[in-house]
């Protein structure tokens, strides 16, 4: 039953994984029997995006352990097969063929980026296997067909919340925007800019930059000279940290909101320059909701560190799919129909999960606003500001 | 008019400072590259990886072991110096008497291995790298500069000074210069050129490592994916400064930094690399010896004939080819869609490799920008068919577009030879990708092109797994047949004559540019169709779908099969497309095997599996 996960375990993580698998197997065998129900995962285990695949596995393994301890899928154990694609579209389409042809697979999850995921979408659509993308924020991801579903936070719903915080709480009236020039960055930036303008703010400039950029001094001079009263960064954590540091070094002391600053890595990379930067997060470790408290505690116990956003998404995704399969069945059609019907599924990220059957995306995400403070985060409190 | 007023009112001082800061980082990279080019006449593509190794040794010393900065710098220099010397000993020296392309590719292999080792040991996540550096900052213009900025600039100047003293005041330095001028003559005068080469690679490695450490401290961030960008910038800097000119490399780095900074000031950060590569192309075309060259100075390049390994191609019996074609045709009957898909991918790679082996193998223009041709074809067909053109015509349009535009773009590069072609085509490839990214009204920019219609030929659907397999196989066979016919005609002989000796061919009345243009046009058509088919297969493409890594991969396939060899290109494509599948079980080590395979191949069978044609 675990041979599929033992294959990639021929790695430096061999011992960790063996330990993990054996702890999984104990309660799983006690509570479940019969053929496992399989989820096919297509994602990066090697290549430049390998760190995200590693975070996914943490979330998947923890979810699996709990699901199987709790009777699996109506008595059958749940398991997954992770195929490495290096986030390369040529490999995701091959893996798609493998999953579609394998009758064991009930539902597919992944891939990481929009380029690699969407290349495989026509195959999944024609093969009638649900492709569940949980990191796919590209606005067109679910538009290929009715087998593409996503619980990635739709920027159309998140960015207006961010804009409200930036304009009303932080008081920016003339905003200088810098954004990562990718599908995610550009889409988010456009929605943010529109929402901010609707709230009466002015966007002084919109500067795109490439993902491998390290030096932002010249761009910051350009932004500074449009005389904004605050900066909005639509960025990942590494570039957000670089921009914040270089801005402060150049003597730009404006208030900053940075999308990627919600990762603990940001704090390490930005150092003292990160203090006072605002950010927002969908998954708030500090939340007092019982689901979140349980997840954070279990994650820390298993891995000795707090969960990343990607691990939380991965954990959420498996729990959601398990809930769908428990309630509506494990055939491929059951999963597709079930995703459209499920309401109020538990989640550590969203208050409650249900899908809009038209867009096949989630509705009503919430955000928690955070402020970086002395190497940690505090939840933004309007009164105390 | 707004542009002019921007130009006048621009805060030039602030942009100059930001340009000089990043420029001195490029300069640090460029010094090592220039040194190696001077002695070994080689662009060391592993230099970026040495830079990354240096930053991680630095992290280990400073953060993990809490050593003081001075000690760390010495350890980094030692560590990367040894890495540099080992590269020379293991990957360059054994290739001494081989074609000039061999060591270049060998360094690409070494770079892959070093990067992957860092990935495995340190994980791909960026890390913070800080040290106890005094915290004062000087106000310059509206910004400030701190101790690290100054240290970087000083290190660049200091190391150039030390190098000058070493080269002109020591005996070993004299030997280095003698080797750079003429290694055979130096050998006859009793110079141990192996020792000289190793020393130079060691020094260059140490400089690269120190650069890695300082740049990591400057950004407070190191990451294992930085190698390639740094390497590219260093390369542009040495082209500006003169390939083997060490002080020129510093000037080149600073000039590049300034150009990028002013360019960002005028147009924005998305255009940064566009300027770098445009400058590179202009330099190659008009001042190939660099800005600081004396008039009339000629470098050892251009060269002819020696860039590609020559050998007798292996003749494959007709019956065997026929049998293989039959097996290929029957493959989908095995009902293994996964394998069918892998082979469809392999044949698409094969089409791309076929095009590249024509220009690089047969005509001798080694291209590292091949992906651009596929991108042109893919975008042309995708954009035309999403606006209503039937897919069958879209494919042809894509091929024609890539053939014509590709030839026009590459035309200025026809006068270049050897390494310069490789660098020039690399720049062209990057420029095409960046134009696609930035020309949003036409290409849809970062969002890419979505909902590209699936493969069909005038109403006959071809998007099923097996149908598209047969379609792509058919395309591959047709283009293979065409190319073989061309190579056996007078055209093929003319192309080979140009490769062997362009000057001699020209004296026989062959207009080499015309024939190079024909080759590029035909190759562009083939590659454009491959790109277009890919676009329809995926239904979604963006500027990164055909990137530099893809270009390098195709070049590796061509080398593996044997330059200029039609069946070799197909074999190379199939082996490389299938190779990762065999290494799936050891996923994390895949790229390691890949790099090692590349080096071993170049070492023991430089003419490729089937020999060059």
Automatic annotation (TrEMBL), chain A:
InterPro entries: BCAA_transport, Leu-bd, Leu_Ile_Val-bd, Peripla_BP_I
Alphabetical list of Gene3D superfamilies matching this protein: 3.40.50.2300
Region forming the signal peptide: 1-30
Domain of life, source organism: Bacteria
Keywords, comma-separated and alphabetical: Amino-acid transport, Signal, Transport
CDD domains per the UniProt record, alphabetical: PBP1_ABC_HAAT-like (cd06349)
Pfam families listed in its UniProt record: Peripla_BP_6 (PF13458)
Domain Leucine-binding protein: 36-363
GO BP annotation list: amino acid transport
Keyword Chloroplast: no
Sequence similarity: Belongs to the leucine-binding protein family.
The protein, known as: ABC transporter substrate-binding protein
Organism: Pseudooceanicola albus
